[in-house]
Amino acid sequence: MVTRILIADDHSVVRQGLRMFLALDPDLEVVAEATDGAEALRLAREFQPDVVLMDLLMPAMDGIAATQEIRRELPDTEVLALTSVLEDASVVSAVRAGAIGYLLKNTEADELRRAIKAAAAGQVQLSPEAAARLMREVRAPESPETLTERETDVLRLLAQGKANKEIAQLLSIGEKTVKTHVSNILAKLGVQSRTQAALYAARIGMVTIHQVSGGR
């Protein structure tokens, strides 16, 4: 199955570079390019891609505001934030806005392709450094609604970095059912992304930070 991608970056060289090496993988297809957040939102509505590669610092509407709108309007579209520095506070804001994770712009091509596919499959994967930083910065939701037993099972597996397909197999349920459970979990916890849900699971001791960061 081909993963459809929207690239949002205000630097044409970056967009060209991304398009060039993503084209080397037959499982990935760049369907559109945006030069700012407002255009990213418009094109996301039009093309409904599986994944948006979102630069954070852009004119007109920044990547954080665009991420928040895309996640609110298009819950099936995952957003991967792209940034130049790990320490940038805007990375934390991007995850709060609903990004499933983030990548540094010096990420190797193979790693980027793998991360895009993982995001499309609903996998939460953070580096240990990123997970530790986000645990400090992203607060657990205030008094969330109680999850059902099955939702708790889904959240535990999601937080361990499992993709929807794996969760479905492990729990002997359909992939669409997993997606429904994930939507319910996000709504009950009052969060925008699987990453935030995974961090919540780590914060309450359901899983360890080591598990959230894939044990890397």
TrEMBL record:
Domain Response regulatory, first and last residues per copy: 4-120
TM ranges: none
GO molecular function, one term: DNA binding
In-chain residues carrying the UniProt-annotated modification 4-aspartylphosphate: 55
GO term, biological process aspect, one: regulation of DNA-templated transcription
Residue ranges constituting the HTH luxR-type domain according to the UniProt record: 140-205
Domain of life from the UniProt record: Bacteria
Keywords: DNA-binding, Phosphoprotein
Stored PANTHER family: TWO-COMPONENT RESPONSE REGULATOR (PTHR43214:SF43)
Protein name (database record): Response regulator transcription factor
Organism this protein belongs to: Candidatus Segetimicrobium genomatis
Highest classification ranks of the organism: Bacteria, Bacillati, Candidatus Sysuimicrobiota, Candidatus Sysuimicrobiia, Candidatus Sysuimicrobiales
